[in-house]
Amino acid sequence: MTPRFWGGNYLPTLEDGEVEIARLTLDSVTRDVKVAYAKPVHRRIRIRVLDEYDTDYITAGPRFVSRPLTLGHFARYFVETIHLYDILEMNFVTYRESGGGDPLESALAFFTAQSDFYPGFDAACRRLVRHRCAQWTVAFKTAHKITKGNSSSIREASADDPIYTRGFAIGGYYSKASLPATPKTSSEPSSKPSSDDMIPSNE
């Protein structure tokens, strides 16, 4: 059996009276699955968010609510609890597994969410990711615009730029070509520049 068929097979067992209310599957090598279980406890609802690895940030503890959460509140709680933003950023911004494409669009294709209790759960999760990670697309398009058709983002000087006639600074010193023209004091320049040829700047 290939690792992609492992997803969801090692989730914690449901307790008596507990039901799965949502799950999110990552398109990873092992098809990792995150789930939310709910159970009525003393007139309240206990929600547990779990995965197949007993991850520390998920097993911090269940959440108790007095009434069912709305779709928007539950989607936000679930996405933030499993650190979905960090997972996607690590894969598609830090390590750029998007293959050079838009990292946000690649991240959105990396997961699917489903729930029998919250119709529209997948769409709600995607809206949260798009809103939170919109800057990825902005950064990608900006970088793409700079590099497209040009190996450098540094603008070349025009042919009549003064840089070609007034000299340039090197290491805090100015070349003699950058100084005002003065009458010659010697008939022939030496073949090797003397220490007088390099004059410290005022900076």
Q: What structural keywords apply?
A:
elongated; 6 helices; disordered C terminus; five-stranded antiparallel beta sheet; single chain; three-stranded antiparallel beta sheet; 203 residues; alpha+beta
Describe the 3D structure:
With 203 residues, the protein is an alpha+beta fold. The protein has one domain (3-147). 29% of the residues lie in helices and 18% in strands. The chain has helices at residues 71-81, 84-94, 103-108, 121-132, 134-147, 163-166; strands at 19-26, 33-41, 44-50, 63-65, 111-114, 169-170, 173-174, 199-200. A five-stranded antiparallel β-sheet has the order 4-3-2-1-5. It has a three-stranded antiparallel β-sheet with strand order 6-7-8, with no helix packed on it. The protein is elongated, with a radius of gyration of 31 Å.
Summarize the structure.
The protein has 203 residues and is of the alpha+beta class.
Low-confidence stretches: 168-176, 189-201
Number of domains: 1
Average pLDDT metric:
77
Strand order in the largest sheet: 4-3-2-1-5
Report the end-to-end length measured between terminal Cα atoms: 69 Å
Instruction: Report the helical percentage.
Output: 25-40%
Set down the secondary structure blueprint:
Layout: E1 19-26, E2 33-41, E3 44-50, E4 63-65, H1 71-81, H2 84-94, H3 103-108, E5 111-114, H4 121-132, H5 134-147, H6 163-166, E6 169-170, E7 173-174, E8 199-200
Antiparallel strand pairs: 1-2, 1-5, 2-3, 3-4, 6-7, 7-8
Helix pairs in contact: 1-4
